[in-house]
Design a protein that fits this description.
Elements lengths: L6 H9 L50 H10 L4 H10 L5 H4 L11 E3 L2 E3 L3 E5 L4 H6 L6 H12 L14 E5 L13 H18 L3 E5 L1 H8 L11 H4 L4 E3 L2 E6 L2 H6 L4 H16 L4
Helix pairs in contact: 1-6, 2-7
This protein binds uracil.
The site of uracil has 11 residues, from loops.
């Protein structure tokens, strides 16, 4: 992998509290692919994004629920515009009663009518917070600024136009804000799962970064046994798969704002993702 950090990027990362001195300098200024695997296993973090329960739960499978399977079959046929419309109109769970806006996602412009944006990177967060609910866009608060700065240090942006390798699409597992920013509930995750699945199918990113426990559980529940009881720190440093697309797990930016010491680990995770995204496709 050839991640070269220029002085501006180093300064930006330093300002974010991310150490870069462990990276090789100058010509080999590159974290080795899989460098994050060398990071010591993290502690169990109970309060990573919001108010995590002792045993957060993700539903075992969307098809386990009749309503969700009905929605899933319709949603799985939709193009990008129909999907966005369907999210805007969704009333499948109680969150529709308290939301101000649905939050579908943000990133490069759609590639054409009905077509998904072209972005090599997909960032998956948890759920809209207050600002996101008001603005209808994910990660627009303080956590979003941190996320944007980390992405910028990798040469990536949610505003990139026409360069898929520099483009990021950002979305959440839940499209509506849980009141008071409480944790997503199993039923809400279940009802929203078909939207996430269809978004990924249409976007076809080269890499997915799952930020936080609920993103991790939603994306890995079919491939990692007992993921709902595993601490996020245990799953870092490896590449997983969601519907054939590589997935890297990392800490949620809101958690990083409170746990400065973990920023270096999140940076290592993003470097791992970068090395995977740049690898020739299998
Ligand atoms: N946290 C998330 O997980 N997503 C957002 O959009 C904002 C905060």
């Amino acid at each position: 992998m050839t991640l070269l950090l220029d002085p501006r990027q180093r300064a930006m990362l330093a300002e974010m509290g991310v150490r870069t001195d462990f990276l090789p300098a100058a010509s080999s200024d590159v974290p080795a692919a899989g460098a994050s695997a060398e990071v010591a296993p993290a502690k169990v973090h109970r309060s990573e994004t919001r108010h995590q329960p002792a045993t957060p739960q993700a539903p075992s499978s969307p098809s386990a629920h009749p309503l969700a399977s009905l929605a899933a079959s319709a949603v799985s046929e939709m193009d990008w515009d129909a999907l966005a419309q369907s999210v805007r109109e969704c009333q499948a769970c109680g969150l529709c009663k308290t939301r101000k806006n649905t939050v579908f996602g943000v990133g490069a412009p759609a590639a054409g009518p009905g077509l998904a944006p072209r972005a090599d990177w997909l960032i998956v967060g948890e759920a809209p917070g207050e600002n996101e609910d008001l603005q209808g866009e994910p990660f627009v608060g303080q956590a979003g600024r941190l996320l944007d700065n980390m992405l910028k240090a990798l040469g990536l942006s949610r505003q990139a136009q026409g360069a898929p390798e520099a483009s990021v699409y950002i979305l959440n597992v839940l499209k509506c804000r849980p009141p008071g920013n409480r944790n997503p509930q199993p039923e809400e995750l279940l009802q929203c799962a078909p939207f996430l699945e269809r978004q990924v199918a249409l976007l076809q990113p080269k890499i997915i970064v799952a930020m936080g426990r609920f993103a991790m559980q939603s994306l890995l529940k079919d491939t990692v046994p007992q993921v709902e009881s595993m601490p996020l720190g245990k799953l870092r440093g490896q590449i997983y798969s969601y519907r054939g697309i590589p997935v890297v797990v990392t800490y949620h930016p809101a958690y990083l704002l409170r746990s400065l010491a973990e920023k270096a680990k999140a940076w290592a995770d993003l470097c791992l993702a970068l090395s995977r995204a740049r690898r020739p496709q299998d």
